[in-house]
## 1
Amino acid sequence: MSSTATANKHASSGPVLDWAAGHGPVTGALSATTGAFAVATTGAATAMPPGWVLAVGAAGALGHTVVGLRVRNAGRTLATRAASWLVGAGWTTWAMTHGPLTWAALGSLATIGVGIGAAARSTALYEEAREEEAIAAEQRAIAQELSAERRAIAAQWVERIRRICNITVRVLAVEMWETGNGYSLDLEPQGGITYDRIAQYAAALSADAKLPHGCTAAVGPGVHQGRAIVDVTTRNVLAEARTYPEDYTPLSILTGIPWGFRTNGDDVLAYLREQCALVVGPTGSGKTNMLHTILAGLARAEDTLTWVIDLNAGSAGLPWVRPALSGELKQADGNPVRPGVDWLAGTYEEALKLLDAAIAVGLHRKRAYQELMAKHDTDLLPVSAKIPQIMLVIDEGAEILVSTDRRMKELAKRIYEFIRMHRSMGGRTIITALGATGSVLGNLLIRREAKVRVALTGGETEGMDLSKMFPGRRGLRVDQAPFKGAGFMGTPESPGALFKAWRIKPSQIRDITVATSDRHPKLDDVSAKAAGTAYARRWDADRTAWMRDHTECPATDVDGALTAGGGLSLSALHEEQPAQRPSREEEMLRQFREEIDAQFGTAPDPQTTEPDTPPAASGGLNLSALRGEQDSPAQQAALALLLAAGREGTGASAIARVLADEYGTTRQTVVGWLKTWVKDGTAVRVGEGTKARYVHRQYVPEQPPED
């Protein structure tokens, strides 16, 4: 017979008694009376001396009294227990002398048992009430101490806001954060003052409170328009390095995806069922790490499929795909692991297929799921593991949307269509960009749909306009988040405020890929039919060959010829070294010059023209002046625009509009350059006020010398 069957047999034979459990009022009284009766019966039969029973009873009463004093029992409890011992010993002595089997003995014993039980119950209730009162008194003392601390904090901030903001407020509550990183103040400004008036002085309030670097006094709206919440951070958690939590439990797109943590230590969630997201961050701000954090959360979601577009060699999605496709990862049962993202497009052609499939899925869902939506009485597709939401993640997608390249315009057209048409059908986007510039946020569709916004600053100020990213949110400054991975995040549920993304390591990406392999939903049949073979064959070898193709360029000698047999090139030993590969800025400027050459018929640069090359036709624009005159590519591009404007000249606003897309240059910066060029004679200002124009010196006729 197995151990389980034996246990079941024993369990069914009768009630199970817990012999280690303590006595209650009933069992205690029953134990005392039966024990006294047994001792009295045995003593009477064996002629035991009655004095022994009295001695035992006295010893028991004394022992319980000592123990009760040590645990600080109440006096009535000590008296009840001692009396129980003495009464029991007295009855046993009497019964041994007169016989325990008489009706008088049995009746008195029963009466004593009932009395002991009632007394035990009464003392137990009294001890419980006494213990609860002690706990309550301790809590009142703690609350009183905290209340004193809170009153002091409230008084300080009332005086501080009155002195700095010239605003009278009343503090309704002070909440200390459980993490110990700070506290929140619930304010009621007097005289119809709104929270944004106080938010203007957030930096001054933080300085006056002598908060550590990285800590702020962030002012936000309260429960109604006449209230404000001030979140005061006293510990700089943004400077701490925190890795992605190793809790890979399932998530849902409906309940929010964690993207990082606030300064108070709480996770900040992104609710993406109906909202798109925009993540901006310059190079070195931690944007790629943030993107992997986002992909990790989406991989954990049981009702989401992630499609990724990254035309930069697919680098954003490769760590989630290559280990699985190459067979490097295996589950515990030996089964293959599914990629962490459902589709990765790293080329222009694959991106077109992905976007066409996504649009087709949304259109087909609108027709096929009408009955389902009517059954659920909703105009939003009920997203679930059976009908997953499609999250389209586009790395540097904002640059695609504002590009003037013909092929990028085709992608942008499809991205706009997907954003505009498929919200109700479970299709949303997460787009990244290099900066929060007017060219990125200038599109109304992006501003309207991307309500989840992240600005990773890393201390970078160029191209980081927080007022455009978080309109109506005052007091946000780039220098508040100088750490890599830190910045600002705002959602419809949580206004823009400081946050930091977790650091996710490559090993964690592999672990999450394995842990969530069986969790990824499959595209529903209706959507898979609409997506067609482009989706069904997305992992075919010929379409994923670029992921595995690591063929390096063959070695060349100084003149560019192949070395024999692809062998070692000794070009480093030649007297003349090959030119270094141009930087990204230099390459952009070269392309810019070529466009100007094609449009304006520019003259060749004497530094790069071969001696035998015939001169260009007269009247061409000579761009040789750009060589070595300016320090930055942006200044060189600005001077090229000034040259291209010819005799008509141009203005600072026109130059800034052209340079904003590529360099994030503002009008104020261009004005500074133009003033410098006017002073050193490079340019001449014509006109005044709004009619002022700037003309390059080579288009200004020389004035005849005065007599």
## 2
Amino acid sequence: MSQEPNVVDAAIIGAGFSGLYAIKRLRDAGFSVQAFEAGDGIGGTWYWNHYPGARVDLECWDYSYSFSPELQDEWDWSHRYPTAQELMRYLEHVADRFKLREHIQFNTRVDAAEFIEAENLWLLRTSDGKTLKARFVVPATGGLSVPKPPEIPGIETFAGEAYHTGRWPRQEPAYEGKRIGVIGTGSSGVQVIHTLAGKCKHLTVFQRTAVFVVPAKNHPLTPEMRQRVRATYAERRNLSRITRFGIPAPMPTESALEATPEERQAKFENAWVNSQLLGFRQCFGDILSNAEANELVAEFIRGKIREIVKDPATAQKLLPYGFPFGTKRPCLSDNYYSVYNRDDVSLVDLKSTPIVRIVPEGIETTEGLIELDMLIYATGYDALTGALTHIDVRGVGGRKLNDKWTDGAKAYLGLMTAGFPNLFTVTGPGSPGPLANMSMGIEQHVDWITQCMEYLRDHGIARIDADPAAEDAWMQHVQEVVSRTLYEKANSWYRGANVPGKPQLFLPYLGGHGNYRRKCDDVAAAGYQGFALTRRARAGQPVADLAGSAA
């Protein structure tokens, strides 16, 4: 006789920033939790993405947990932008400090999740052949955790070493004396390139799309720097919760077109010298809504590239065109462009010199063979939805999540998708996600989910589901907001354009972290408006549906 699966209140998938915080919040609220992690350690995105040069692109003061003042005060960040390795040490410290590991089963993937309607429970099947039932499922699977392999013939024939930045080996490879090729120049590619230049015999960069790279201005932190931030941490966090990007960055309203050329030049120079991810966004209020204003920034950065790169032909290849500045995530690096001044670094522009195939000896292009000992694929991710759609998720009536999302992912507030009750997504489609501070967004999501589960428990409600009309209205609002910007002029991973066959729909909410937080709070205060609530049946009584009105 088969053993009946254990039942927990919440099954959490993933043990990164969101998974760890979900464990803590739900456990502290009195819920039984079981988390599953595919890797053998915690870290989530940073566990998988620890390639050479991997760093976060938000300052450490903001890209960290805010729920514990004691945690903020006791952890000493070493640099303005921590490496993946330091972020993993931080998360390990969090897991140990709050005793979270005991709730995590490592080396275990969730292969399938099926909603059992008669029981209002989810049945999970894991890679170790076991099953578990949970009243709620919280996929904390991350937005950049499923690598996207390149679509190049002959990949399997390469005789040398080959790695994807999103699945970097735990044992660091040796680079000295090797001819290394890097395919891709997004954030991960830029970081790999500027890190490995000079550490190998020769580095060949295969550029698919030239990108905007602004200075990182990364630096070690002194005790005095840490103390200054700690003295204002509470104010900094409170401001971050109401701002557009979830960080204490004021956004201007004046137009770049109303400023004089001298005023624009001064602001752009300041943004370059005192650089940060949003530095150029903070110059003027219409950088991402007015094409003419955007082009002023784009041409300023192109001018910097021409100044830095000595060979005019190489500089020309590195100039980004074809999409507005900021509509693809800008990259940070203090020396990316200068590496192309080295004799041991070559640039292959794939628009003018396409790859024909990968062969055992290296890469064959339209201009001949480039021999390589190592290939690094910095080709991106099946972002935002990939991790969840790789699980066989089946909701009401056995409907597959992948079937529902055939024409594009849909979710109400990025928190639930209709037809899949009691399944909460963290920073899911329709939430600000990667267009705001992810750590702040994660805390907001998990706090909201926890409070919702407490409400359901306290009011005897067995099931919550997104109302389809509310979901449709919200996703329409998401598209309306982005239509007022320049984001739709770029084939970015924000809209799934990097994955062949993936429906192209802009998924993050551009209305801002602060506005989004207020919307979620208002929905909860109105008795979970836009959600359908089903009360737990008492003996001899029918189940009662408490349908929330559509937003």
## 3
Amino acid sequence: MRTPQPQEARCPGRDRRARKLTPRPGAPRVDSEWPPTTAVVGGGIAGLAAATVLAERGVRVTLYEREPALGGRLAGWPVHLRDGTTVTMSRGFHAFFRQYYNLRELLRRTDPGLERLTGLADYPLRHSGGLRDSFRRVPRTPPWSALGFVALSPTFGIRDLARMNPVAALPLLDVRVPDVYERLDAVSARDFLESVRFPEAAYHLAFEVFSRSFFADPRELSAAEMVLMFHIYFLGSAEGLLFDVPNEPFPDALWEPLAGYLRGHGADVRTSTAVENIEPTADGCFDVTTGGEERRHDTVVLAMDTAGLQSVVSRSPRLADAPWRDRVARLRNAPPFLVSRLWLDRPVARDRPGFLGTSGYGTLDNVSVLERWEGEAHRWAARTGGSVVELHAYAQSEDAAREVEQKRLLAQLHAVYPETRAATVVDEQHEWRADCPLFPVGAYMDRPTVRTSDPGLMVAGDLVRTELPVALMERAATSGFMAANALLDRWGVAGQTLWTVPDRGINAALRGLARWGRNRQTPAPRPSNQVP
């Protein structure tokens, strides 16, 4: 199978200031006579990214995934509805933003034109008090994006603007990694916004929606993560806040084609195979144990969620070193979240958007009308005359009663889309999960990096500290590429070119203003739990 070559000169999006990170020069492939072997543990985005780059360059890859399907938190699985239809259930809606350069480069392996993604026309937000925001008409290029949002948003009145603290807001104008963490990791997202004195309506309608996309309460989320997010999606990138979504369920659109691609490059893809422990050997290799079977690999990439990583590391007492194992043990998950997917016997109103972010509707964070963009849901709705609606509730209380929360979400759907009160729920599926990483105040330096103390052991995933301006799914893909590149560099093989949004503010005058503000402020104190 032909390996697509990186388009070194091509800007991956519309932002001509996107940052290119070229790997070290090297051979195109490993020695074919004695190729090294790598165990990639975890078949989510990070693991698939690492496995793809390694397999393309001739490394003998074994990909271990404990679940029956690939995709990690974007996996899908079949469920049977009461009407006899087999459909795909998942953990819910995910937005593929245009600045997800590395994730999109991974998907281009099997979909060069990204034809299996479709763009949604808007990113609308709605508050229960009647306020609405939209990003469809907001300019995409900073600083006009910020000015346009303020001008078009009903949440920024003249009095609101007059009482804001512009000096406190200056960090938003020139975000650099890791500087943003050195200054703001000790502050909560909520406290930062209060220091800026953002209008309360703007906070609830826009910024709370953004911060909760990390599945965390703003009072617990690091302000550095939130400010970095503003930079990536709004203030530092010219890609804008509109996004794409897969036009079929995740397995069909994304992961089954990529699994075939990996097998075509000689990778051994093992689903339903949980890694129990990993034992370093005296000769620098690793014995990987799964269900009583042990296989030796030259190198390992750990690309699991927090609980999975902690489980394997706790059963592998000689892996890396003790300080690293302690840091892994201290990682935390975000609070639980609920995804409710409802099959209704009648359609929602025609003018309802495919996705709507909400605030002020209890625990409801967003509503998706799947038949607006997903082929499988569209076919069911066309056949039955109904609708497929999905509801998300992030940052649930640990002791929340699931059935109670499911009923509350349905009630809030009726408040947001009143026509659904007359609809009958002909089928429903609910997912209650608590496996997304938490980025709490003061914990940045305690997060694992891609490299470990063992040169043959790498870590990848959205929980990893990359020192690059990436987040969420893009952090997963980027860290997977970085893990593969680090191993390939050992063998003298060129890795994957990486792209990120600009690593600083887009406007020189605004960057100078931000530097002036930094000089006026004292850095935030380093939290006591950080590792020097």
## 4
Amino acid sequence: MTDSAQLDQLCINTLRTLSIDAVQKAKSGHPGTPMGAAPTAYCLWQRFLRYDPVDPEWPNRDRFVLSAGHASALLYSLLYLCGVKAASPSYKESDRLAVTLEDLKTFRQIGSRCTGHPEYGWTSGVETTTGPLGQGAATSVGMAIAERWLAATYNRPNHDLFDYNVYALCSDGDIMEGVCAEAASLAGHLKLSNLCWIYDDNDITIEGSTRLTFTEDVAARFFGYGWNVIHVSDANDLERLARSYEIFLDTDDCPTLIIVQSHIGYGAPNKHDTKEAHGEPLGDEEVRLAKESYGWDPDAQFYVPDEVPAHFRDQFGQRGAAARLGWDEQFAAYRQKFPDLAEQIDRMQHGDLPDGWDSDLPDFPADAKGMATRESSGKVLNAIAGKMPWLLGGAADLAPSTKTHLSTEPSGEFQAPGQGGDYSGRNFHFGLREHAMCAIASGLSQSKLRPYAASFFIFTDYCRAAVRLCAMMELPVIYIWTHDSISLGEDGPTHQPVEHLASFRAMPGMVLIRPADANEVIEAWRVIMQIRDRPVSLVLTRQAVPTLDRSQYAPASGVSRGAYVLADAVDQSPDVLLLATGSEVAPCVTAYEQLASEGIKARVISMPSWELFEAQSQEYRDSVLPPWVKARVAVEAASSFGWERYAGSDGARFGLHAFGLSAPAKVVAHHFGFTPENIAAAAREQIAQHRKSSAGGQED
């Protein structure tokens, strides 16, 4: 073995033993995949990955996604040995490594940078949160799409600012997951030749051999998707691995899948090729045996030979630093020649909005007939997109229904050249792939674009895992969910969301906004565009809702505070509160007018966003919902779960306790009691009930 080969092997075994020791010390984790996949990852990072460890957020860096998130110890060991610097705001110390040796020693412990699965925003060098299998791979497609869009939009002759590649290390579990199939199918259609998935084919899952459930021909499947497929029969063959990566780099018309056959727990003689090496620590005796098989001191823990970090620094570090410095020089020249485009890139990278982004928003006059909030949202979206070129997105085959197709210039269709569009298009067609769509939207956001993803609200059931991870990562993805209630009508209960509002409100980090009319839609978009650290779900109607007369009722700017007094008693001392969101606000207003004609003092409160309302001061919240007014009626065409927070335990709650009904929208609404007459009747009952209660049980 040559000196160079010996040094390579020393680095690989250091990755293995660091991962083994981290898992063993934690008494928790997965050592097998880091052991088996170490050569695959080492070859990529040391010889090919273009990444400056001093600047881990350099815009043109190659991306490495560990979709096999259970192998997190391998990624943390790489980050430590490569000397990747901390860049996330979550680090308080300056000039700190993203992962230190002490961090590895506290793997899976509270406060450690080495969490059980990689967490985006917490540990620099982690490109996306992974763990739920298939998510990382699907998100990597969004990163690859982003590079293609950035290159097509901003590159100019002799100024190739964006030309990075995206690599994802996948496990058997990733390849099995449906979201992975959705994303791979779309990536093949889009001919994303900058995307490389590395499939660590080790034939093991938690339950045992993959032969229990997984006997398909993966290569044939991906070939059918339109991918280039390469086989590497031995994960320890660095030269064959290197040749595979070179083939990927030479491929310019499709994504690449490299199938690498490895043995999980390689080097652990007694647990070789078993599920135990995958799903739990090796144990002290197996650790000793594994280290001895590597020629390692079996008693050494977290041992790093001096030559190893130096070797990474001399190759991985110097290559990345040179590439990043060259890019900085090129961008400086680009800035001189194309200042307007450079300014867009700067704003995009910092999450800043363009000047005057909201200067052309439409105006919606009062209209009793009104329009669907999906219609008004489409108009507002296009107005903002005309001022913000990096606002882009699409729907899961439903853009005509969700009103999310961009017609403002420039727009166009994002497609591989020759397919009716090009890579500069801002309209994305995800097909019937809701789950992949939302994972891809996260990848676009992590690439600093401002994406939106749209579908019917009911179909969030198909993409929940990706949406949840987006909220966990605090990404400002815009979700546009339409057909928001039983009022979509004839399609019936299969398409009528009931429990979905409650479930999204229960998701930490998610902001949900359900506007009542066209002008609340405008204000909702004002809020959305200024949010930089959370996703937003904009929930919209299919049916027309009245555009309220804002000269008679309060301005819609109250949306920014989550809830506001829309209509009030003359003396601002109401006897009953009517609370609603979305399409149920208008019947509350009608009930309010009816009660006023009877001399009953009511207050209508529009509550488009509970999350925004909860962020307000107690003083403001009490001014909207006076604690002393106990008579309350909450109205929402969905599950009433959660409304007791605002209606009180004794308040009336108009909601759904069953699935919907297939009939015209007005018939369905009447069937379930969502009428002004019923709301007014409930208000009278509430007033009578609380007057009786306050009088000590005696009639007035």
